[in-house]
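User: what does the whole thing look like in 3D?
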Amino acid sequence: MRDGRLDAKREAATLAEPAREARALAERLGLTPYPVRYWVVDHDEMNELIAYEGFQRRYPHWRWGMNYERQHKSDRHGLGKAFEIVNNDDPAHAFLQESNTTADQKAVITHVEAHADFFANNRWFGLYASRGEDGPNAAARLARNGDKLAAIMARSDVDRDDVERLIDAVSSLSDTIDQHRPVDAARTRPDPTDGTGMAADESLATIRERIDDLDLSESVRREVFDEEWLDAQEQDADVAEPRPDVLAYLRDHGKRYDPEGGKAVDREPWETTVIDAIREEAYYFAGQKLTKVMNEGWATYWESIMMGGEGFAGPDEFLTYADHMARVLGSPGLNPYKLGFELWTHIERLTARRDVIDRLLRVEGITPETFHSRVDLGEITESLAPHPAIAGAGPATLDALADLARANDPRVDADAVDRALSVRTGDRDPAHGPDIERYPWKLLTFEGLAERHYVLSRPEHCGALRAVSRATLQERARYMFDVDRYPTVEAALADVDRTAPWRRLFEVRESHNDVTFIDEFLTDEFVREGNYFTYEYSRAGDEFRVASVDAEDVKRKLLLRFTNFGKPTIVVLDGNYGNRGELLLGHRYNGVALDETQTKAALERVFELWGRPVHLATIRTEYTEEAVRRARRRGREPTGREVGVRFTYDGEESTEHELEKSIADQIAAETVDYDTKPDEWLA
Amino acid sequence: MGITRDRKRFREVGEQRREDLAEFISHGDLGGSGPDRIRIPIKLVDLPEFVYDRREAGGVGQGQQGQPQPGQPVDPQPGDGDEDGDPGEEGGEHEYYEMDPEEFAAELDEALGLDLDPKGKRVTEEVEGDYTDVARAGPRGTLDVDEFFKRGLKRHLATDFDGDYVREGLFVADADVDDVFTWARTKRIPVSRAWIVDAAAELETELETPTSALDRWESFDELERELQMEPAHARIGREGFRTVPFRREDERFRHPEIIERRERNVVVINVRDASGSMREAKRELVERVFTPMDWYLTGKYDEAEFRYIVHDADAWEVDREEFFGIRSGGGTRISSAYALVAEILEEYPFAEWNRYVFAAGDSENSGTDTADSVIPMMESIEANLHAYVETQPGGSGPNARHADEVERALGDADNVAVARVGGPEDVTDAIYEILSTEDGAEATSEPREVSP
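Assistant: Here's the predicted 3D structure for the full assembly of 1135 residues, as structure tokens:
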């Protein structure tokens, strides 16, 4: 990156302090981010980084050029303004655009610190990170792949177009990996030869072909290569269980079609190198795709705490920041930033509420039945408010904080208070003392900050207690021992643990991915308050319509959207289909059919990696014209018939066939149903 | 370095995979393009993937105001089903290869073997060229310092002379002021008599002797033999420039040269029959022929103006957006349109504008309108090209004779083209037929092989 330029240098200098302080604040808030290296880049470099998915060096490919053009175009229309790019690495690298306002830069920095915390602590990122001794080392790894592939393309004995075609093919399948396991564990066979001297990753068909080529007499052939031996060989390529890691299977058992010889031939070593490189990158990006909602929501949540709550945006910058936030959260559609942000806040609120309810239910005389009448919620909100000196920490409350510090109050950073006092008395150079005017949080500990930002004392969330239903209360009371422990409400509230919500967030951040996150935390209340709904395509009306506002339906639809990257699950069913060494893939049908145009095109890419005919089994719903017409008349949806289909590509043309019943049964859904259409449209 | 390489490659890949131009014109979706950007579909540039059918999958949305009612129609949410969709990012319209009209025109030349060479017509401006003209007066800033200096120097050289040398003349035996002056003049020394008088007086005071008494040299010849006159440049080299006399009359001010620019400008009048017999299929064929021609001419000319006329028995002018869609009832009188064409073209004098008049219809016209009115008007309206495009899917009817009559009457004129389009497959031929006909065009263009 060019850093000799004056503008970038100047900008970098002004950002050094915000970056340092944001890190200190993040750590005080309990985050443990990877170190972050910040780079100041200009507008063109930013677009370039976006095109390369956040990295400076990637392998040569037209797709990056396409990304760039696209970014450039949306840029021209004032859309898609890039605020942050950060990549998951240890240390993480983050890029700041030099022309952004300081408020934007600060927002990006706080956002990035939270991302870096997520990278470092989320288990799904760990899948990738744990694979090397030196951590993810992503930038270096991707750059190395870039060099490797560029070197292959430059070779005189390799046709550049062939390399590109191979990259295209593997990239097309980059989501058909086993993203729930680390890249190496997902591979079927670590050892390329198994002692027979013959590469084990040869399909049975090839072995038969080779035997045929040997031109042995029938008797010898039977003697040496009996069926038992062949069966033993077959174990490797044979698919006893459907395999989800299609790409690994193709890598290990696939071939290359040689148009001149008209048959499949073994791959050149460079081809395997290319496949491995792209597959490795697919695993790197899988971590991000699996946690998009959580990760963006996490970053947005902490950004709002730091920028808004802790005044990291100066008073003059706050409006710019608020505007930025409104734009991020306000963009239409299902927005991962917003969904994630709301879910995290929801978890925080529920955790706090549960804690408060649990304590209140232990107050003498308070039961689920008497809760709403006995408890004065206004009063409770008041008593949950943070200590005034904590809430207003800063130069004005320094004496009050000093009193607390003397009493060993865990919420106060006694050391910092001490130093601030000596600055005030002139015993300490202000340049070395904590700048409590601008960074008042330096006076507080994690406990202090947790109280300062306690969710139920924030005005927009205090209604959460009022909204609690009797059913919820009863649910809590049922599992409660030790009832009647507190004599008064005040005593109960004094025990409320204000760090509980954040500690809970940290736990969730460690173990979940988007699917489990949504599955566990998307509640009725959340769907209702967020006005979420599902929509479905109406065949009768030839339009999309709102289908359901039911929380279960919304959740199911969202899960469809996030399970397996929101893509259909494709597995290897048979590597020797029809006993001809052909590949049979199966779409695990869950009631949602494939996009057939794309499927056929993707199947052609599979052929590139298999070298022999390829098939894909799926199920689709067919409607007779008559049924559609009748349904339209009655304002209902037509009933279709589910039919098994096998798409085939043999290297020349795409064909469709009826699917064998046994295979159809194998791929059909168990019990999931993603259809949220009502029986009858109300409209 | 990397991004330049990858963008170039994307361009190449896009070019390979975009729809063939002739195919695009005949069958492609012209609607995605605007007058400035022509968007040609690229066959599947983004990599295919195994994905759900959008309609089967449905989705989740968020109501802006309250929870919506089931059954209410919604647009699929932007960014939905696209996991890279960052907020504010534009949705995924990327399967187009975009070209500007210039590139389109060049490509069409290539694809159809056209070779239209637009003529510059109107003098649009007298632009300021380089500062190559000079004048004696002007703002100080434009003073040509080089010239000023050179002139000063020239003057200096012209008036400068070796004073010591001339003074020596006074030392010649018996030579007086007049003798010295005559001698100096024959030597082309630019000295005045007054100067010699002064010099003589000086010497007389200095030496206290009349100059006639001084005789260091026997004659002027001897003087010339013994002494060399010092050339001016040597003296300047020795004494420097301080003595160069700068004068007001040496000042020269530079000002720009005025260049006449002739703009290659064109006005295109598109005329279309909107009468009842012009059904959807015919209208679409008109659009297929006219739209690429508009793009082509936009790309070829510096400035292109388009006017749109529709007619039935009467003619009226419309905007481009309305032009291809309008359908009216009534009969057909094509001359009504040409009357309006003539009126509109008054704004575009032929001396200053290239003019194209493209008319299209199904060749039906009322009575003897074609022979009595249209043909004479086509002859009288000056234009680079008059074209008539007959769109008649399934062949023309017995009453549809306009194209035939025009062809019979004016087919030999080198600025009239008649093309017949029965279906999309005829579109590119029609475009070729029209655009390869132009007044005088044949004279300048080499015949070329047509590559479809």
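In plain terms: Chain A touches chain B through 89 residues (CB under 8 Å). Chain A has three domains: 6-122+291-331, 337-527, 538-667.
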